[in-house]
Write a structure and sequence with these properties.
264 residues, alpha+beta, five-stranded mixed β-sheet
């Protein structure tokens, strides 16, 4: 059974084999997540054909592939924009302006959360955390960081995207990739021209390290924290009890029916 045009499917199967080979024998299904990203790099979202092809390659049920695809928010089950603009609305970003940025972009783009502009250019998404709290509020474009955003800078960002201008992340690659390009990278096929571009960790992320170096602070010697023999013995005893818990056979004396009978 074929799921795509011959050339597309043959290339997919070849790259899928390359991905699967990265995992130990007998654990081929561990490749499911990168294979879903590979589907998105072709279709722009997780399609029924993509699910069918992955199930065929991994010798599993379509429902098993769908279960993974619907669990993670990076996998889209409907057509996605060329660029996903994600606004962090989690606690720190929210109080520093993330909620305001989201509301401003909804008005600017005339779409709501997880909706795509009429031209198919941008999908707007409210994100729980971009893992960039030291640069809050943060906006991501196809998972590239745009730090210390304001409503005004975010509006300019989406206007540049809609105008077809390259947008330049604060950290990472010099220009944000398209959604399909980012999906291919996440599938395990990085672009060698952009893989090592930009700064991975900026000053805010390194501030603690700088302070430690200035004050001559060092990590403590692990030997200072060796446990006493008594503590080790106590831990062994409690650990043994914990390990035994649940291993004893459950008989009638443990059943709820037995307790109910005894209570009468």
């Amino acid at each position: 059974m074929s799921f795509y045009d011959f050339e597309v499917e043959q290339k997919f199967r070849a790259e899928a084999a390359e991905i699967i080979a990265r995992y130990p024998e007998g654990h081929e299904r561990s490749a499911m997540i990168p294979l879903l990203h590979l589907v998105q790099s072709i279709d722009g979202y997780v399609t029924a054909n993509g699910i069918g092809l992955i199930a065929d390659i991994l010798n599993c049920q379509r429902a098993e592939v769908s279960a993974v695809a619907t669990f993670y928010t990076q996998f889209k089950r409907h057509p996605n924009g060329e660029y996903t603009v994600g606004v962090c609305t989690n606690a720190l970003c929210a109080v520093l302006g993330g909620d305001n940025i989201m509301e401003t972009l909804e008005k600017e783009l005339e779409v709501g959360n997880d909706e795509t502009t009429a031209d198919g250019k941008i999908t707007l998404e409210a994100l729980e955390c971009n893992a960039g709290c030291d640069y809050a509020p943060v906006v991501m474009v196809n998972w590239e960081f745009f730090d210390n955003q304001t409503p005004e800078s975010a509006v300019q960002l989406v206007r540049d995207i809609k105008a077809g201008k390259p947008v330049h992340p604060t950290r990472g690659s010099e220009a944000a990739p398209t959604f399909k390009e980012a999906s291919r990278i996440l599938a395990g096929f990085p672009n060698p021209e952009t893989a090592n571009q930009g700064v991975a960790a900026g000053p805010a992320s390194l501030w603690g390290l700088q302070v430690a170096e200035e004050k001559g602070m060092e990590a403590p010697d692990p030997e200072q924290f060796e446990k006493s023999e008594a503590a080790q013995a106590g831990e062994t005893a409690s650990g043994g009890a914990a390990n035994q818990a649940g291993k004893d056979p459950v008989g009638k004396e443990h059943s709820s029916a037995e307790h109910k009978e005894a209570d009468k």
